[in-house]
Amino acid sequence: MPRTFDDARRWARLGTDLFTGAAALDAAGLDAPSTLPGWSRKHLVAHVAANADALGNLVHWAATGERTPMYSSPQERAAGIERGAGMPAAELTAWLRRSTAELAASTAALTDTQWQSPVVTAQGRTVPADELPWMRSREVCVHAIDLGTGITFADLPDDFLAALCDDVVGKRAQEPGPALLLEATDTGASWKLPGEGEQTVLAGPLHEITACLTGRAHALTSPGGGSVPALARWL
């Protein structure tokens, strides 16, 4: 079943709670590595806080018609994350709380008409503003796992996981990669990823399928116990 606007808003709220709860760490905990190569947990918290501010720019655009890009440049985006990673723990988590609260308040104020206003993402895609909750839900749900505090894809709702798999397959199908058929043994859903070489069939629980598709650690094995073709990280 295709995801709905209400679904995305629900997932964004759930993911926000998961992420902010997992990020409520002391200084040593935030300084520890995340599961993303080269990033501490502080880098990841700064990224998610900055993303809330950036999406807030698009909410402002939708509400007022004033063009306000997510970021002024890729360099500014990267510099903001580095600044955040250098903040004291209390200051960083306060930024996270403030930015998420401001995003929630600004989106709650949008009218039905404003939700249909076109805005431009950081990747240059023009989308209606009602895509913003889905964009945010991906950030907070997936990065809650990337913090490495024990949250896994199994902690996320099946309907979100299925929607995320649809989204990832749609993107990966446009890029070079291995040919895969992924079958969720617990829900009966499947995804076909066109690519190079002979198709590999991977079967397992939906949460493991999602982890594999997003380039995260998973427990899937190829038929006969062989290695699973590697996928680059997504998001």
UniProtKB/TrEMBL annotation:
Q: Could you tell me which residue ranges the Mycothiol-dependent maleylpyruvate isomerase metal-binding domain spans? A: 14-147
Could you tell me the keywords of this UniProt record?
A: Isomerase
For the keyword Isomerase, the answer is yes
Gene Ontology MF annotations: isomerase activity
Q: A Pfam family this protein belongs to?
A: MDMPI_N
Lineage start:
Bacteria, Bacillati, Actinomycetota, Actinomycetes, Kitasatosporales
* Name this polypeptide is given: Maleylpyruvate isomerase family mycothiol-dependent enzyme
Recorded hits in InterPro entries, A to Z, give: DinB/YfiT-like (IPR034660), Maleyloyr_isom (IPR017517), MDMPI_metal-binding (IPR024344), SCP2_sterol-bd_dom_sf (IPR036527)
In the UniProt record, the signal sequence range is: none
